[in-house]
Amino acid sequence: MRVLGVDHGQKRIGLAITDELGITSRGLCVLTTEGKTSKDLLQCFRELVQAERVTEIVVGLPRNMDGTIGPRAEEVLQFIAELKQGVDVPIATVDERLTSKEADAILRRNTRKNRARGDRSERDMVAAQIILRDYLAEQGSM
After folding, report:
1. Which superfamily does CATH assign the domain made up of 3-139 to?
2. pLDDT of 88-135, one tens digit each?
3. Coil, helix or strand for 8?
């Protein structure tokens, strides 16, 4: 079982992946969306699924604080619909409310005072790891 966690943003897509047993995860990379078409992004995902032997993808769904689906979540659902057309692995969603704030807190905690905090790309990768962690916990894998 190898699960790819996705933090979909308007400018960047943070990615994290589990180990072969689906127990631990690590940040994988960040894809920038600027200047890329949907076809370009689908090709990136196809290559990642093949290269990393991904068996499942989990995408963070940014619900409103009251749990409803807003404009950002609609964008992510459209991305998921396109992704389903381009890859042959199951795709699940997990509620990602406040994952960016949690990622910021983790980065602040893990960064020395005299060193600059991680950039937004690093935050996006950490957010993808949180999405993956939450999904695995829901599945009873952690």
Report:
1. YqgF/RNase H-like domain (3.30.420.140)
2. 999 999 988 666 666 666 666 666 543 444 466 688 888 899 899 889
3. strand
